[in-house]
TrEMBL record:
Keywords: Acetoin catabolism
Keyword Disulfide bond part of the UniProt annotation: no
Protein name: Acetoin utilization protein AcuC
Positions of the UniProt region annotated as Disordered: 339-359
UniProt similarity note: Belongs to the histone deacetylase family.
Pathway named in the protein's UniProt entry: Ketone degradation; acetoin degradation
Organism: Sphaerisporangium flaviroseum
InterPro entries to which the protein is assigned, alphabetical: AcuC, HDACs, His_deacetylse_dom, His_deacetylse_dom_sf, Ureohydrolase_dom_sf
Domain Histone deacetylase: 22-312
Length: 387
């Protein structure tokens, strides 16, 4: 299915580190890359390096004075609350600009490869920092690498780009940066803003010509409801929009074990979402697919397995969920974290869902969330909101 796949990696990407005890621990991407390597997944892709994004590239979406403020914090590690650095979510640290610019540069490297046709798919699992705003850090995110990649492709002549965000938190930064730009369709499936940061992402946030799409799911939503909502909203909109490139953010904090949120997906449900987005990239965007990581705070049990599955899916050779985790990786996990690693690549689930076209239940909270989004958005795209 996939012709050529690049994974962007540099060992210095783990320098994006807010310090001990912070939920966004860089060991999660280290464990991911080691698991993908031990499984042989990285043998199926082209592994490439990257350079930091330049100030001009960051300024495609960020304010110049914000970039300068981050640089000042970077030089001495002193907080600057005016730019959002020095809070519990976004602690200041020396080198924060360089570390953040490298994450953005990795996503830019992936965007260039896809836009130029050098690779059909490209991934940056260290990226997906979707909360950063034009002039402030937010939600563990300093520079908004998905937005930088999208803006760069627009600067190269892209006319329609679709961004699908499956992180448990609303992709508010990316939405904000393109809210009034009808060239960019942003779709975010997330836990309801009534129960989770950042408190935005209601269906009524529709953007320019219905190009901001928000599916706000109730706490406790699991595989069956989440997949029903995804298939009720995402495929019809991507088919109607006909993007030239599909950009996706794969925060895996929708998992039941994640300590910061309240959805109940399994690894196996998340795998189904990866496969669906891969197929939609081929169906609607000519195969051009740029994927990033994102949130995910169960550092050992969830993130490494989820994103190893993502890379394998993009490579066109999915890992059998029953595959044991390699012994060398288990020993690596124990040595790096002291935790007991998972033994297989599955949670043992086989998620199934009923397609929304079969009918709408107004008494069901998930169906009500689906209909709220479809009613707000579908008419903009010539689609019937009714199932």
């Amino acid at each position: 299915m996939s012709r050529s796949v690049r994974v962007v990696w540099d060992d210095e990407l783990v320098s994006y580190d807010f310090g001990p005890g912070h939920p966004l621990a860089p060991v999660r991407v280290e464990l991911t890359m080691e698991l993908a390597r031990e499984l042989g997944v990285l043998d199926k892709v082209e592994l490439v390096g990257c350079a930091p994004a330049s100030d001009d590239e960051l300024a495609l979406v960020h304010k110049r004075d914000y970039i300068e403020a981050v640089k000042r914090v970077s030089a001495d590690g002193e907080p600057d609350l005016s730019c959002g650095l020095g809070t519990p979510d976004n602690p200041a640290f020396p080198g924060v600009h360089e570390a953040s610019a490298l994450v953005a540069g990795a996503t830019l490297t992936a965007a260039r490869a896809v836009w130029a046709g050098e690779a059909e798919h490209a991934l940056n699992v260290a990226g997906g920092l979707h909360h950063a705003m034009p002039g402030t850090a937010s939600g563990f995110c300093v520079y908004n690498d998905p937005a930088v990649g999208i803006a760069w492709m627009l600067s190269q002549g892209a006319r329609r780009i679709a961004y699908v965000d499956v992180d448990v938190h609303h992709g508010d930064g990316v939405q904000a940066m393109f809210y009034d730009d009808p060239r960019v369709l942003t779709i975010s499936l997330h836990e309801s803003p009534r129960t989770l940061f950042p408190g935005t992402g209601f269906p009524s946030e529709t953007g320019a010509e219905g190009t901001a799409v928000n599916v706000a799911l109730p706490a406790g939503c699991g595989d069956t409801g989440w997949l029903r909502a995804f298939h009720a909203v995402v495929p019809p909109l991507l088919r109607a929009f006909e993007p030239e490139v599909l950009v996706t953010q794969h925060g895996c904090d929708s998992h039941a074990l994640d300590p910061l949120a309240h959805l109940m997906l399994s690894l196996d449900g998340q795998r189904q979402a990866y496969a669906a987005l891969h197929a939609l990239a081929h169906e609607t965007a000519g195969g051009r697919w740029l994927a990033t990581g994102g949130g995910g705070y169960e550092l050992v049990q969830v993130v490494p397995r989820a994103w190893s599955h993502l890379i394998a899916e993009a490579a066109g050779e999915p890992v059998d969920p029953g595959t044991p985790t390699p012994q060398n990786w288990r020993e690596f996990v124990r040595g790096r974290t002291g935790e007991v690693p998972p033994l297989t690549m599955t949670d043992g689930r086989s998620p199934e869902f009923q397609d929304f076209s079969g009918g709408y239940d107004p008494g069901d909270a998930i169906d009500r969330a689906i209909m709220a989004t479809r009613k707000a958005i579908f008419p903009f795209h010539g689609l019937d909101p009714q199932p």
